[in-house]
Write a sequence for this structure.
């Protein structure tokens, strides 16, 4: 089953995809969209194009586990995704520190911040999805 991983951002949203066997997550694309309704439509279009059956949506809880403004935005996006597609399972997945981890991975590989900045959202989505796959 194909699963998409989503790292929501106010301006850029990273998307990752896994293989049919649900073993490996790979970066797919970055969607540039500020309007959450339009973003949900684009994600659903992409999931249909890739024949995805599930979406793992990064859920940015605060470090103390509380729900802040970013998490509320993701909850809204989850609601819209469910409205636009009744047959997709939408899972909220704790994404605390994934962007930091993705940045460290780029830095450790010798990339300068200017070079990896446009890929950080996809890399974060990839980490979210891979963490979910490892959990399975």
């Amino acid at each position: 089953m194909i699963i998409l991983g989503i790292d929501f951002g106010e301006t850029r949203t990273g998307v990752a995809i896994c293989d049919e066997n649900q073993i490996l997550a790979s970066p797919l694309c970055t969607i540039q969209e500020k309007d959450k309704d339009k973003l949900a439509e684009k994600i659903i279009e992409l999931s249909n194009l890739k024949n995805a059956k599930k979406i793992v949506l990064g859920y940015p809880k605060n470090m103390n586990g509380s729900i802040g403004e970013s998490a509320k935005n993701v909850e809204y996006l989850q609601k819209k995704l469910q409205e636009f597609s009744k047959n997709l399972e939408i899972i909220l997945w704790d994404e605390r520190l994934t962007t930091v981890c993705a940045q460290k991975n780029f830095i450790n590989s010798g990339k300068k911040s200017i070079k990896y900045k446009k890929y950080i959202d996809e890399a974060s989505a990839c980490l979210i999805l891979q963490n979910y796959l490892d959990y399975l």
